[in-house]
Request: fold
Amino acid sequence: MGSVEIKAAWLATDQLRALYTDKEIHANFYTRKAMIKADSKTISNTEVALIGMHVVGVVENHPEFIWATFEHHTSAPDYYGSPGTFKKVTTPYEKNKIVSSDDKFIFYRKNTTAGNANLSYPAEQTTTNTFRLYQFGVPNGAPYTNVASSDQQTRDAENFNNIQVLNNSVKQGLTKHDSRWQHYFYAGSVWLSTQGYKFNEGISGNIVPPNANDKLRGSLALANITMETYTQTYGDPNQNKRYSTNNCFACHAPAREPWDFICESDHGCDAIPIDHKMTGALQRSDPSCGEAVPESGDWMALFKLKAMVSIGLTKKWFEETF
Reply:
C-alpha cells in the first residue's frame, strides 16, 4: 500500500433534524464536533454527521490510485437502480419519471420528477434537490447500453453484483453489533487495467465509443452524490452525440508536459541549479522528519545549496538597491 487520501463530506446535524430525531441521528450517523468557519466567522463546537467519503490509494501495479467512495443510505435515490442483481435497462432517461416517493432522503424531495430535480448546478436555488443517476456508479439505460461493447456491459453487471453482495455481507455483520456504520454503503471504485498502459499519454475517463478508454475498470460512472453532486454527467443523458458520463479520471489524471509544474532540465519551468541530491539532503536533514540520517555527499550538497541561496539573496539585494 502506498499513498492514501481520504476526503469526507459532513453535514451539520441541525440540518438533519427536519428528518430525524436526535436519537435517530446518533444511532444512524457517525457524528463529530467540528469548527466551522463561514462568512469570516468561526462557529465552535458544531456537531456534524458524516454523509460521504472518498478513500483513494495506491496499491501494487496501480500508480493511478484505486478510487473508492462511500455514502450514507439516506443521501439520495437512484434513477437507474436494482434492488437485487443487476437489471439492464435499454429505455432512455425520462424527465417525467418520479425518482422516488420516499421522504427519507437528505438531498431529494419525494415525488420530484427527474426533470424538476437537478443533475446540473441550480444557480438560483439555495437548497439541493437531486438524485444519483447510476447506482454504484454502474452506467445503465440508453444510449449507453446501445453503444457500449458487450464485454464492457458484462463487466458492468459483474461489478454491480459484486458490490451488492459485498454491501449485504458487511451490513449483515455490522447489524449484529448494532453499529451505526451499517447505514453506510460502498458506492463503487474505478481503476485501470495497467498492464502495458502508457501513462505518459494521460488517462481518459471517457466510457462512450468511439473514444472510450477500454482500460477503465470498476464503476465507470462513479460519483459521490455529496461531492460530485452536479458532475455526474455532461448535458442531457439522452443526447447521443454529446452524451458523456463522468468518473474520477475525468479530472484526476497524471499531469503532462508542459503543465506538470515540475522543474526539470528538459521541461516545465525555467531550469534551476538545484538537483535531486540537494533536495534529498534537505529532506534527510529536516528535524521535523526525525533524527538526521545523512548519506554520503549530503553535507557538501547542503553547503552548495546554502551558498546558492546566499548568492541569490545578495543578487536580489543589489537589484533592489541599485
User: Anything to note?
Assistant: The mean pLDDT is 87. Residues 276-321 form one domain.
